[in-house]
Amino acid sequence: MLVHPEDMLPGLWLGPLVSLCHDHAVLMTDRTQWDDQSTLGRGAFCFMVESTRRQTAMPLHQPPAHADIRADRLVLLRLLDFPAWPDAGTGQRERIDTLMKGHTGGGDSQSQVMLVRFSVLGCYVLDNDPSSTHPAGTPRFSGEPGHLLHADRYGVFAPTARMQDLLINGTVTPEQRIRFGLLRHDESLVYRHNGVTSCLSMLDIRGRRTAMFGKTRLGKSNVVKLLVQGMLDVTAEHRDVGQLIFDVNGEYANSNPQDGADNIGSVYADRCTLYYLSEGKAAGPNGKLLRFNFHERPEEAMNTLRELLPADLAESDYVRPLLSCRLPALGFNAEELPEMALRRLRKLMVFWTVLHHAGFEHDETRLAALLHSHGYSQPFNPGFSQPLRLSAYQAVNGCSAPALPRSFADMVAEISLMLRFSLSYPNDPTLRKQGSFLFDADEEIMARFIYPQEGAGPYVLRPAVPFHSPRVDNFITEVLATIDQGDTVIVDLGSANERIIRYFAKTLSVAVFLHQERKFVRNEMAGRYVQIYFEEAHMIFPPNAGNVIDVYSRFAKEGAKFNIGIVYSTQSPSTINHDLLAQTENFFIGHLSSQQEAAMLSTVQYAFRGLEEDLMRTRTPGFMRALTASHRYPIPVQANRYDGRTLLMG
């Protein structure tokens, strides 16, 4: 049964209904009885029962007998307000007067009773369908209360702790639950008296889109930490969910004394890999340096430079031609002609020379070993012909050609000299072979970049230098491998500006999406998921841009198919890509200060309609309205404070 005898004790009885429709119900209650219900504030849940007896009306002061009500069905109500006493002569006033005479034999009704208005949220019934996939007797919720009888047949109770647990957790998926917080209807402290736990199922978060909205310092990051921790806990054995966190404020990779708890990366050090922009922070046992190796990943270098450089610099007449150059990948194809392989390597040497003139550090030993592994026996020899070397050195330096380059410095010196020679003596016959110019169009652009007629010179690339290291591997490959193992990657971007944050977020997001897409095409998903967390999402997601399709729009539309879930938090719904917002299944809402933002939220998610005023009035840290994929209505909850201790349900 849904309604037990202990749920119908006299102290919980509120009274009969005055009026009822599918959206609202008006209760008549004894003032003395109501004064004892200190937990029933605005937004509180109550439940309505149906009498099986055809009587005039339910009693005012005493609840009906348990045997006289339908124990397999209850209607969920949410307290709205206290309507004004109806005017004399109206239909509702006549009904109230009739009810009062029946209960008290007359008297001044306004001095004895009061009216309470509720919204009707839906109906719980027991599922006894033999064809159902749920166990017999499982509570099922319907957002529509269905066929309603006359108001005389209904009465309202305040919920017991057992009933409150049903009302806030009854629809939550029973597997992989965590203790999320305590039921809290308003900003008073009465919620602590009963301490009814509100649960979340991590299955509702996994592979879905989750939004957190609310003003800063009101608990969004704390909720994200609870979700990250919950996912780590429920996957401790199977490790079927890998996580990627873009830590914009450094809260997950670094302990904050203000929060009074160790960070996620420390508590779960065995399952977390931390990437830092600061070399000092990366010295930890599970810390790595977040850098791009421009020498070893030339095929991605120009696009990366375009993202890392200030927009006005990247689009300048001096830098834009350089960024348009196309560079080959660092590799060696044994089937191609040695001359072609050397030409490709020489083009990369020209690019490395650009990097050298711009101040990018190199690691000669590492680069030489890499070139040797690709089959280049003379890794730093550009392979220029001897006649060309003689002409170039004589024309530029007034000396004979030295020995062939054997080091990175020798290579840079010879490439630099050849580029100057080609710019100063473009018609020299030694620069041509079989009628073709020695350097291609991209190499000529790089030559003019190193030796410009106008412009600041290669040092304009210096803004990208802090994000380069010649001693790191492909961090994208490392991140994907860590996620595939079911571990968590935390990218600390606490010291970065918005441009850098967007670059790393977009780069890794695209890599994750393509990686999961490839696994989907090859039927290699094997029930494995990726969960991505975006803090301060307004800095990462672009504004609504019509029909532009970017990786975040694809997360919204195709993420579920590829087992990609995202959690994003920001202050305002209006700052989020509309495609993503429209596809979001889970919402955690704190304080919204704007009517426009509250109205937009209720437009996107109908379940929040009617809660706009509550969202604008309440601003207690950690006080959230939670609506997940298995919730049918928002649950007001005081979220637990993250302290590093597990929240798994016992």
From TrEMBL:
InterPro entries: HerA-like, HerA_central, P-loop_NTPase. Pfam families: DUF87. It comes from the Bacteria. This is AAA-like domain protein. It comes from Roseateles depolymerans.
